[in-house]
Amino acid sequence: MGPSTYNLVKLSIFSVRDVEYSYGVIEFESHEEILGKVLGKDSDRLKRELEEEMNTVFTSFSLATGTLNYKGEVLDLAYMRLEREDGSSFEIEIYEKSARSFSNTSPEDHYEFAARLIKALNPDVSIRGPRMIGLA
Q: Distance (Å, rounded) from C-alpha 132 to C-alpha 85?
């Protein structure tokens, strides 16, 4: 039987009309361990792990870690940019309690990729919440 508590992730995706671009907001609602799964790993290892878990090949993979100073609060962060052979790309900034993502794909593809990435980083999370909040 699984754990008695559930890790929940609320994932919302936004889109801009007439432009193949979408933006996502990811809220970690229960102390999900996402940032820690990225920090401390080198880019080659993380790329291999994600390719295997997501059953895909990335033609380009970037990983950077550091901090963000937001209104005087210093937050650890990890940044990833992943590009697939079809030219679609996905960028994500991961913080302890949230993340934001950008993609040159439709909102539906963005949502699917973001959900698969979060699950690949931590298989114990459940994704819930609206698929799309609105269109600009």
A: 26
The string of DSSP letters for 47-94 reads: HHHHHHHHT--EEEEEEEEEEEEETTEEEEEEEEEEEETTS-EEEEEE
| Single-letter residue type at 133 | I
What is residue 135's predicted lDDT score, i.e. its pLDDT? 54
Q: Which residues have a Cβ under 8 Å from the Cβ of 67 and sit 6 or more positions away? A: 74, 75, 76, 77
* Cα separation values, 123 from 19, 55, 64, 65, 93, Å: 32, 14, 22, 22, 19
DSSP 102: E
The pLDDT tens digits for 47-106 are 999 999 999 999 999 999 999 999 999 999 999 999 999 999 999 999 999 999 999 998
Structure tokens of 117? 């990435």
Q: What residues contact 129, with CB distance under 8 A and at least 6 apart?
A: 9, 10, 11, 12, 27
Decide: helix, strand or coil at residue 28: strand
